[in-house]
Amino acid sequence: MPNPTPRRGSPLLLLPIALIVAVLAALFAWVGGWFGHHDLTPQKMMDFAETSGKQASGFRRAHSKGVCFAGTFTPAPDAAKLSKARAFAQPSIDVIGRFSAASNNPYAPDGASPVRGMAVQLKTDDGQEWRIAMNSFPFFAASTPQAFQAMNEAGKPDPATGKPDPEKMKAVLAANPEIAAFQAWAKTAPKSDSLGNTRFNGVNAFRLTDAQGADRMVRWSMRPRLPFVALTPEQLKAADPDFLIADLDRRLAAGPLLWDLVVQIAAPGDPITDPSKAWPDTRQEATIGTLAVKHAEPQATGPCRDLNFDPLIVPNGIAGSDDPVLRARSAAYSVSFNRREREISEGKSAYPVNQNGSAR
Amino acid sequence: MNRPRHFNLLARVLHWSMALAILAMLFVGAGMVVSLQYRAPLLDLHRPLGIAILLLAIVRLVNRLTRPTPALPADLPAIQKFAAHASHWLLYALMLAMPLIGWAMLSAGGYPIPMFGGVHLPAIVPHSPEVYGMLRPLHGVLAYVLFATILAHLGAALYHAWVRRDEVFGQMANGDRQ
C-alpha cells in the first residue's frame, strides 16, 4: 500500500522546479527564433521581399506574375542509366508547370526583367514527385542566401533620394565579388521575344543515383527546340505588358512547344555548392528527356497557383546538393507559400475574379 | 475497486519513449521553420517521426482506455485532481491531433508526403488553399500549446516527486517489482 502520510518536502523546492521549466521554455523559444538569433531566416527574406515592390495579397512573394501550363514529359531512352527515378523509366508523364516573371508585382510588364522562370511538377505512377524550378539566368546572382539578401537590400531605393545608395552596393560587391558577374549579365543579356525560345537553367547542383548506386552531380537546364530570337530595343519599347503570354497562347494554338532537359555532369573539382559559378561548357552533357508544353491557362484559375515549386521535392534517385542557395530556396518558397495560402484562406486574395488578360 | 499501484509496463515504456520523441519533434519543428540551411533535412526527419508518434499514440490510447490505472492520492485537492485529468486528456488529444493536422495540412497544400525509401502516404484531405491556409497556422499554434502543456506536466510531476513526495511520480517511474 502507498504511504498514506508521506513526509512533505520543503516548498522551497518549487524554485528548482520553476527554474527547470523556465530553462526549457527559454531553450524552446531560442530554437524557435524568438530571441538571440541574428542569422538570416526565410521569414526575414520574405519580409524584405514584401516591402521591395508592389506585393499583392495571395500572390507569390517573388515571381508573382505567371501563367500555368500543362504538357507531357518523355524521358530519353538512356536517362534511366543516370538515375533510378521513375521519371526516367515511365514512358510518358503528364505534367503541370508555370512560367513566371521575376518581380513580386503581378502586373509587371513582361519586358521589365531579363529573368524569367519555368517550374514543372512531375508526378510519376509510383506515387513519387519531382518539382523543378528554373530561371533564365545562366548562374545565380550570389554564392549564398546571405549575399543574395545583402544585394537585394543594397539595391532597394533609399526613401530620401528615391535611388539605391551606391556606397552600400559597393560594400556588398567588395564582400561578394561574384555578384558583379550577375549584374553584368542582367545589364547586357538580350531578351528573347518568346517564352518558347527561352532557355531555363536549374543552376543548383543535384545528385543523380543510378540503379547500381553510383552517384553523379549534375545541373539541369531546359533547352528550347526553337532558336533564340532577341527583341530589338524598339520592339521592347513598343511591347505590350503581357506580350509573352499573348505570344505563348498564339504559339500553343499552332502546336506544342518543346524543350530538351539536359544535364551537365560535374567533373572533379567543379563547384558543387556555389550556384554563382557556371561549370565549363566542355563538361559532359546528357539529354534526359523532352518537355512538351501543350496548353496554357491563367494562374488565377489554373492548377499551378496553389503549388509550391520547392526544388527540394525530388523522388528517390535524385537528391539535392549541399548548395546553401538551394536549401534557402526551399525554405523561402515555403514561407511565401504559407503566407499567400493563408491570405487566400482568409479571403484577402487580390486575384481578379474575372480574367481580363492581365495579372496572370 | 482493484487499481494497480503503477502504470503497466507498456504504458511506462510508451510514456518515456514518446516523451523523448515528442520533445525532439517540437524542437525540430520550431527550429526548422526558421532555418534556411537545415529546414529540408529536418523536415525529412519531422514527417516520419510525426507518423511514428501518431501510431504510438493510438496504441497508448487503447492501452490507457482498456487497462486499469493507478489512482491519484486520496488527499489531493479537487482542483489539482481536475487539473491532472484535464491536462492528461489534453496531452492525448494533442499527440493524436498534431500528426493528423500535419498530414492533413500537407495534403491540403498539394505536397507529397514522403516517409523514407520512396514510400509515400496518401493525401487525407483534398488539395485546397483555404484548408491549407487554416491548418498550417493551426499546426504551429497547437505546437506551442502542446509544449506549454508538457512543461506544466513536467512541473507537476516534479512537484509530486520533490514537494508532495507522494506516490504519483513513482506510478510512472517504477514497476510493481521493487
How large a portion of the residues of chain B is in β-strands, by DSSP E? Answer: under 5%
Low-confidence stretches of chain B: none
Total separate domains of chain B: 1
Number of domains as seen in the coordinates of chain A: 2
- Which spans of chain A have pLDDT < 50 for at least 5 consecutive residues? 355-360
Helix content of chain A: 25-40%
Class of secondary structure makeup of chain B: mainly alpha
Q: Provide the CATH topology of chain B.
A: Fumarate Reductase Cytochrome B subunit
The most extensive interface, with participating residues per chain, is: A-B, 58 and 44 residues
Level-2 CATH architecture of chain B: Up-down Bundle
Count the beta strands of chain B.
0
**N-to-C order of helices and strands of chain A:** HHEEEEHHHEEEHHEEEH
Quaternary assembly: heterodimer
What would the average pLDDT of chain A be, to the nearest integer?
93
Keywords:
heterodimer; A: 360 residues; alpha+beta; Catalase HpII,  Chain A, domain 1; ten-stranded antiparallel beta sheet; globular; disordered C terminus; B: 178 residues; mainly alpha; Fumarate Reductase Cytochrome B subunit; heme (chain B); transmembrane helix (chain B); Di-haem_cyt_TM (chain B); transport (chain B); Cytochrome b (chain B)
